[in-house]
Design a protein that fits this description.
Blueprint: H1 12-46, H2 55-81, H3 94-121, E1 127-128, H4 129-136, H5 138-169, H6 174-187, E2 193-194, H7 197-221, H8 225-246
Helix pairs in contact: 1-2, 1-5, 1-6, 2-5, 3-7, 3-8, 4-5, 4-8, 5-6, 5-8, 6-7, 7-8
Length: 250
């Protein structure tokens, strides 16, 4: 494996093209997710299932179908480009599990450090729409916990670390590839946020830092399962804490 500070022999044109591909994959992932979600809702409505009247079902279905959309977008890209070796994955080894544990701890340290700085500055961070819905409906949070591990973590890592960072890694050294992929990862969350402009920027910055940690772990393990596991468990823990809070546990 190249050192993180290693240089890439790609030309400026190849590097620019890889960034364009990363942006294209980001857009394609979300557009495909919207198409799949629309088709899924229409199919259920045609079957007589009143999806729109069940908020919990709507959110759960949105998460599952978005994950499916991400997977379809990546699969289509790999098929069109014949890059079937783009994704690196295998059953986790003990070393991988060690990286998973360390990465999870690093995510929480990074999150708390940024939260401390933000609180000292008196800035209110933007909120994710799903979290806001969970505050109003604790039952929804119970569904979000397993979905975080089974769908959110794997699908987002498939797109941003597996496909996008994988494409960038062919043209850039590890650090620039991680930074660019994490930037796209952060910006991609903007449409799910509510709050002030400054709060949105803070949320994107937090997501960027978390993405860098996940990207670093992927670079070191060459195993997409590891960041997917970290990401999913991290979100599941946050949702669990949210449930304790909104259900009156604290």
């Amino acid at each position: 494996m190249d050192e993180l500070s290693g240089l890439s022999g790609a030309s400026p044109e190849e590097r620019l093209r890889s960034v364009g591909t990363g942006i294209g994959l980001t857009v394609a992932g979300f557009v495909t997710a919207l198409v799949v979600l629309f088709a899924g809702v229409q199919a259920l409505a045609a079957a007589g299932i009143p999806v729109r009247e069940q908020p919990v079902l709507v959110v759960g279905l949105s998460i599952v179908l978005q994950g499916l959309g991400f997977g379809i977008a990546v699969a289509v890209y790999m098929a069109l480009t014949k890059r079937f070796d783009l994704l690196k994955y295998r059953l986790p080894t003990l070393r991988d599990l060690g990286w998973a544990a360390g990465g999870l701890v690093a995510l929480f340290i990074g999150y708390m450090a940024i939260a401390l700085v933000v609180s000292q500055l008196g800035i209110e961070t933007a909120q994710n729409a799903i979290v806001e819905q969970g505050r109003q409906n604790p039952q929804l949070v119970l569904y979000l916990i397993p979905l975080a591990i089974l769908v959110v973590g794997p699908s987002e890592e498939l797109l941003f670390r597996g496909a996008i960072q994988g494409v960038l890694r062919r043209a850039y050294a590890p650090i620039p590839a991680i930074v660019i992929a994490s930037s796209l990862f952060g910006v991609a969350h903007v449409f799910a946020l509510s709050g002030s402009g400054t709060g949105v920027l803070v949320y994107i910055a937090v997501t960027f830092v978390l993405g860098c940690i996940l990207g670093f772990v992927y670079e070191r393990t060459d195993n997409l399962v590891v960041p997917a596991l970290i990401h999913g468990v991290y979100n599941a823990i946050l949702f669990s804490l949210l449930y304790v809070q909104v259900s009156g546990g604290v």
